[in-house]
Every structure is written in structure tokens, then in C-alpha cells.
Amino acid sequence: MQNKTFMYILILVVIVFLIFDLFTVFNRRPKFDITFYKTVVETDYSDTATITTIAGLSFKDEKSMYEYKESYTNASSKTFLNYFEQISKEIGKTITVVSYENSAKERAGILEIEEVAVLKNLVDVSNNTYTLNMGNIQINPNPNSLFIVYIPKDSILVSSNPTPTSFENNKLSWDGESLKNFPTVIYRRK
């Protein structure tokens, strides 16, 4: 009889832990929604490119926004450098962060985060051909996102994979959820 009682208590404890685990798993959703996301990549005739990213984050409450802003401000530079170390390992080429700046500002209840990075070896240079690529790195598209690549004004676009949603002069654009991976853009001098 005592063994049966002990077994029932043990089963009850396991069930309580399972319910608690399920509750915590379902409540671990991010405390914010991405309202917009814009990335601009500017290239020239070197192996270096500048990436500017602007994201708008909408939080469920003001306290969550200020907590996120504080933790972002304290850890963003280190996180960014670690990210590109990891990317370099994944794609098999060393991408070096030459400079990095960021800011986080509140505007009309939305936390706007801006990051500007100059990255060396983002563009492969061979003879007169320049290839912007980061391997098969995934991008998390958002319906309100925009990804733009500027190639030099006096260059000729050789190819772009995937095909941009628009191409005018030296500006290639992908909007919404049309871009799943970082694009490969090949251009050359005229």
C-alpha cells in the first residue's frame, strides 16, 4: 500500500512539473514585434562594404521596452562582433568588422535601433569583377522589411541571386518577404 501511495505522489509531482514546463514554454514569446526592418548595403570598388540596419520594435509595455533598450545598449557591440566571427566560420571566409556604431531611440512608442557597420572581405575582388556575398546566410524576412544594395554608379550589374523586386540605376531592392538569404550580387567596372 505504501508503495502505491508513493507511486501516486511521484506521478503527481511529474505531472505538475510537466504542466509548469508547458506553461513556461508557451510564455517565452518575444516581448516585442518587429514593425519594420530596413537594411542598406553600400559597396564600392574594394573588398569593404557598409551595412546600415534600422529596425522598429513595438513592445507590449513600456517597462519591457526600457529593459530591452538597456540590455541592447550594454551587449550589442560584443554580440555583433561575435555574430560575424560565427558567420565567418560558417561561410569559410573571414569577415572583419572595421567599425561599428549603434543607437537605440524611442519614437512614438516604438524602439528604433540603428546599426552601422563597415565590413572588410564582404566583397570578393577578382580582376575587374566584384562579388558581394555572405554565403547562404538566412535573413528573417518581415512583411514590412526592405533590403537594398547599392553598387557603384558607374558599374555594370552582372548578376544577382535572387532576383531583386526592383532595380533602378545602381540600386537593387528586395521588399517584404521576398528575400530569404543574403543576396549574391556580382558587378564590374564599365
Short description:
The protein is an alpha+beta fold and 190 residues long. It has helices at residues 2-26, 62-91; strands at residues 32-43, 48-59, 96-107, 110-120, 123-126, 129-132, 145-150, 155-161, 166-168, 171-175, 184-189.
List the helices and strands and how they pair.
Blueprint: H1 2-26, E1 32-43, E2 48-59, H2 62-91, E3 96-107, E4 110-120, E5 123-126, E6 129-132, E7 145-150, E8 155-161, E9 166-168, E10 171-175, E11 184-189
- Round the Cα radius of gyration to an integer and report it: 23 Å
The span between the termini is: 90 Å
User: What is the molecular shape?
Assistant: globular
Spatial order of the strands forming the largest sheet: 3-4-2-1-7-10-9
What is the mean pLDDT? 84
* Strand residue percentage: 35-45%
Structural class: alpha+beta
- What number of domains? 2
Strand and helix order: HEEHEEEEEEEEE
Number of helices: 2
- Helix coverage percent of residues? 25-40%
The total of beta strands comes to 11
Poorly predicted parts: 20-27
Oligomeric description of these chains: single chain
Largest sheet: 7 strands, mixed
Short descriptors:
single chain; 190 residues; alpha+beta; 2 domains; seven-stranded mixed β-sheet; 2 helices; 29% helix; globular
Describe the structure.
The protein is an alpha+beta fold and 190 residues long. The protein has 2 domains: 1-30; 32-189, no CATH class. The chain contains 2 helices and 11 strands, in the order αββαβββββββββ. The protein has helices spanning 2-26, 62-91, and strands at residues 32-43, 48-59, 96-107, 110-120, 123-126, 129-132, 145-150, 155-161, 166-168, 171-175, 184-189. The strands form 2 sheets. The chain has a 7-stranded mixed β-sheet, covered by helices on one side. A 4-stranded antiparallel β-sheet has the order 5-6-11-8, with no helix packed on it. Keywords: Membrane, Transmembrane, Transmembrane helix. This is DUF4897 domain-containing protein. The chain crosses the membrane at residues 6-26. InterPro entries: DUF4897.
